[in-house]
Specification:
The structure holds two protein chains of two kinds. Helices cover about 30% and strands about 25% of the residues of chain A. Chain A has nine helices and 17 strands. In chain B, strand 4 (about 55-65), helix 2 (about 70-75) and strand 5 (about 80-85) form a beta-alpha-beta unit. The chains are: A alpha/beta, B alpha/beta.
C-alpha cells in the first residue's frame, strides 16, 4: 500500500495535501496497491474528503499529547505506522509540516527522502522528477530505499477526484510515545494585528520592485491594491532596499502565491522572483523595459513607467466604481 | 552561548539558469557564488545573540576549498570562527552532509567545546532538500524546529515562531537545540570592506569528513522546466494604455 500524510483543518484537507493525494493515487495505481492516509486530530468529514481522492483507509492518530502539532511526535507516530503497515512509499505534501514530518521519518528510518516531487515512475527504485531552485530547475533522479519517502511540490499538480467515491474507512492508531518525542510542540498561536488580505490567500496581488524607487512611491501601488481588493507584494530587491517588510516578499525565499491576477510593477522578473509567482493564473506586468524577463513571462504587459500608468489606472478604476 | 551556523555555497543565478552540455550541472562559467539567503539570516541571528550575551559564533560549510569564500563572508559578518568540512566539491546529499556535521559537533562536544544552538537555513537555494537540520538533530538527539522566522533566547531556552497566514505559531525549545530558519528572520548586515579584508586573513579550520552512505537519491540529469508562457499581449507603451488595461480587468479577467 501507499501511505499519505494528509494535513487538514477541521476535516477539510489542505490544497497541498489534495495535490499530493492525486500523485499518491497515481503511484498506488502503478504498484496496483491501495492508497491509505494518516491524519492527526480527525475532524468531521475527513474520511469522506480524502475518500473522494481515492483513499481507502484513514489511520487517525489518537494520542492525548499531540492534539496540536508536535513535529517529532507526529513523525514518530508515522514512523510506527510505517513499521506496522510496511507501505511501498510514504508521500507528504511539500508544505512546512509535510517536509518537517517526513524529514524526521526519513532520519529515524535511515532512509533518503526526495522533496518537492512532480512525477514518479514507480518500480524497485523510483525514477522521479523533482524541483530544484524552488522550481526554476528540475532534477531527474533515482530514489532507492526500502520505503520510498517523498514530498510533492505544491501548486503544480491539478487535482482530480475519483469517478465514484465510496468514502474511506477510518481506523484509530494509538502510537507509543516517549516524553522525548513530545519535547517540541505548538505552544500557542499568536494572531497577527496586520489588516488586509494575506498574500497567500489573495485573489489579486499588486507587487512592486526596484522600479518603484522608494518606500513612499509604494503609496500608488497601495492605492491600486485597495481599489482591487488586492494584497500588496514586493520583490526581494524592494525588501533589500528597506522599502517593504519581508512579509511582503514574493519569491523563492518569500511567499509563493497563486492569485487569479498578479500585477508586478517595476519588477524585472529574476528567477528567484518568478518561482514565487508562477502559480498566478494571469500576469499583467507594468515595466519600462520591453526586454525584462517579466514581460516575457506575462500574459499582458504595459511598457511604460509605473509612476505614470498606475495613477492613471487608479483614476480610471475610481471613475468606473463611482459610475457603477 | 556558543552557536554553530551551517551554510552552503551556491551559484548566484540571474534571470535564467543555463545548464552544462551534459545536463548534469549549472553552467557557472559566468556566475559568482553566494550562500543561500536563509543562511545569511542565520549568521546574522547568531552574531546578534553572541553580541548580546557573549559566547562564540562559528560558521561551517561542507564543500571544496572554494567554499571558504562563503565561510569568510560569515566571518566578515562578525562570526568568530570558520570551519570547512573539506571535500572534492561533488554533491554529498543530505544524509552524508548531516552525518559529517553531526560528527564534527560530537567531536567538539567530547572536547568540552560544544554548541548550545545549531542554526541551519530551512532549505538550500539550489538542491532544496529540506532535511539536513532535521537529520543532524536526530543524529545528536537534540530538539528541533524548522521554518522559523522569529527567534528569541530566553532564560529557559529559545522561543521560535513560524509564520502562518494570519499570525504565527509559537514553539519553545530547551537548549541545546537545532533551529532551521527562513529569510525575514532579521536584516542581515552588509559586511564592510574592512571586515572583508580582515576575514581574508583569518584561518579557516579544515576537517576531513567521512562519507558514510551511498547516495539514496541519485541525480540522473537536470532540465529546465517547459516554458508554457505563450505570447504576451502588449497593451501599450504609455498611460494611454489604461483603457486597454480596464478592458482586460473588466472583460477578460472579470476582476472589476
Amino acid at each position: 500500500m501507499i501511505l499519505s500524510f494528509v494535513e487538514h483543518e477541521d476535516g477539510k484537507p489542505e490544497d497541498s495535501s489534495v495535490e499530493m493525494l492525486t500523485l499518491a493515487r497515481d503511484v498506488a495505481g502503478q504498484h496496483d496497491v491501495p492508497l491509505e492516509a494518516v491524519v492527526f486530530s480527525a475532524g468531521e468529514g475527513v474520511a469522506e474528503a480524502v475518500g473522494a481522492f481515492g483513499v481507502e483507509t484513514v489511520h487517525v492518530v489518537d494520542h492525548d499529547g499531540i492534539r496540536d502539532y508536535a513535529p517529532e511526535a507526529w513523525a514518530e507516530s508515522v514512523n510506527q505506522l510505517v513499521s506496522e503497515l510496511e507501505p511501498e512509499a510514504v508521500l507528504a505534501p511539500g508544505s512546512e509540516r509535510g517536509h518537517e514530518v517526513l524529514a524526521h521519518v526519513a532520519s529515524k528510518r535511515g532512509l533518503p527522502m526526495a522533496a518537492n516531487c512532480l512525477d514518479v515512475t514507480a518500480g524497485e527504485a523510483y525514477e522521479l522528477t523533482r524541483q530544484r531552485w524552488g522550481g526554476t530547475l528540475l532534477e531527474n533522479a533515482r530514489l532507492t530505499g526500502e520505503t520510498k519517502l517523498l514530498t510533492v511540490a505544491p501548486n503544480e499538480i491539478s487535482t482530480e477526484q475519483i469517478a465514484d467515491p465510496n468514502g474511506a474507512t477510518t481506523r484509530e492508531f494509538q502510537p507509543t510515545l516517549a516524553d522525548e518525542d513530545l519535547r517540541v510542540g505548538l505552544v500557542e498561536i499568536e494572531e497577527s494585528d496586520e489588516e488586509g488580505i494575506p498574500l497567500g490567500e489573495a485573489r489579486i496581488v499588486v507587487s512592486g520592485g526596484r522600479g518603484v524607487g522608494s518606500a513612499e512611491e509604494f503609496d500608488k501601488l497601495e492605492e491600486l491594491a485597495d481599489l482591487l481588493d488586492a494584497a500588496i507584494g514586493s520583490s526581494r530587491a524592494a525588501v533589500n532596499e528597506g522599502w517593504r517588510s519581508h512579509d511582503d516578499q514574493v519569491g523563492q525565499t518569500g511567499a509563493k502565491i497563486s492569485p487569479t491576477l498578479y500585477i508586478p510593477c517595476g519588477i524585472s522578473g529574476a528567477v528567484q522572483h518568478m518561482v514565487g509567482c508562477k502559480g498566478a493564473e494571469n500576469i499583467l506586468a507594468i515595466n519600462t523595459d520591453p526586454e525584462a524577463a517579466i514581460v516575457d513571462h506575462a500574459d499582458y504587459a504595459v511598457i511604460a513607467d509605473l509612476h505614470e500608468v498606475v495613477p492613471a489606472l487608479n483614476e480610471a478604476i475610481r471613475e468606473q466604481k463611482d459610475g457603477a | 552561548m556558543n552557536i554553530l551556523t551551517c551554510l552552503k555555497r551556491v551559484p548566484e543565478t540571474g534571470a535564467k539558469i543555463v545548464l552544462t552540455d551534459d545536463n548534469q550541472e549549472i553552467d557557472t562559467t559566468n556566475l559568482g557564488f553566494t550562500m543561500s539567503p536563509h543562511e545569511e539570516c542565520a549568521i546574522e541571528e547568531a552574531v546578534q545573540i553572541v553580541e548580546g550575551q557573549g559566547g562564540t559564533a562559528t560558521v561551517l560549510t561542507l564543500g571544496s576549498e572554494e567554499a571558504t569564500e562563503q565561510v569568510r563572508t560569515g566571518i566578515a559578518m562578525q562570526a568568530d570562527e570558520g570551519v570547512l568540512l573539506e571535500t572534492d566539491g561533488s554533491e554529498w546529499g543530505p544524509r552524508n552532509i548531516a552525518g559529517a556535521i553531526a560528527d564534527f559537533v560530537r567531536q567538539r562536544m567530547e572536547r568540552g567545546d560544544g554548541f548550545d544552538l545549531l542554526l541551519f537555513g530551512n532549505e538550500s537555494a539550489d538542491t532544496g532538500n529540506y532535511q539536513v537540520g532535521v537529520r543532524v538533530a536526530n543524529e545528536l538527539d537534540l530538539p528541533c524546529i524548522t521554518s522559523i522566522k522569529d527567534l528569541e533566547v530566553t532564560d529557559d531556552g529559545v522561543v521560535a515562531r513560524r509564520e502562518i497566514p494570519r499570525g504565527s505559531e509559537v514553539y519553545e525549545l530547551d537548549l541545546p537545540a537545532v533551529v532551521a530558519v527562513k529569510e525575514g528572520l532579521n536584516e542581515p548586515r552588509y559586511a564592510s570592506m574592512r571586515a572583508r579584508m580582515q576575514a581574508r586573513r583569518q584561518e579557516v579550520k579544515r576537517v576531513t569528513p567521512e562519507r558514510r552512505h551511498e547516495r539514496g537519491l541519485e541525480k540522473l540529469s537536470l532540465q529546465s522546466p517547459e516554458d508554457d508562457d505563450g505570447e504576451t499581449d502588449i497593451l501599450g507603451d504609455s498611460p494611454d494604455a489604461v483603457p486597454a488595461i480596464m478592458d482586460v480587468l473588466e472583460t477578460d479577467l472579470e476582476v472589476l
